[in-house]
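Protocol step 4 of 5: obtain the predicted structure for the target chain.
Materials: sequence only (see below). No template structures provided, no constraints applied. The aim of this step is simply to have a reference model before the mutagenesis design in step 5. Sequence pasted as it appears in the construct record:
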Amino acid sequence: MSGQQTVTRADLCDAVHDAVGLSRAECAQLVERTLDLIVEALERGETVKLSGFGVFQVRDKRARMGRNPKTGVPAAINPRRVISFRASQIMKSRVHDAHLAV
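Step 4 output (structure tokens):
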């Protein structure tokens, strides 16, 4: 693999199709539903833990004062919700080991 590649939903559907043997349409529905369930849980403020993969978590950021990096003028930053992802140790190890094998 040269350069950076992006894995798309279509790639995930193809991988499920190759591994499971369901029709491409069924695999697409399966992938879409899985992603929908993750998003719905995050919308409710729930933590999504996928063993061996990682944890998606919603965090509430409070209002604060920031600074425009171009002008240096102070600016208010509104409170907001953000999603954070923390990779599992298993994933970190696999990515690290794959990097060493290159």
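Step 4 remarks: Strands lie at 48-50, 54-61, 64-67, 74-77, 80-87. Residues 1-44 form one domain.
Proceed to step 5.
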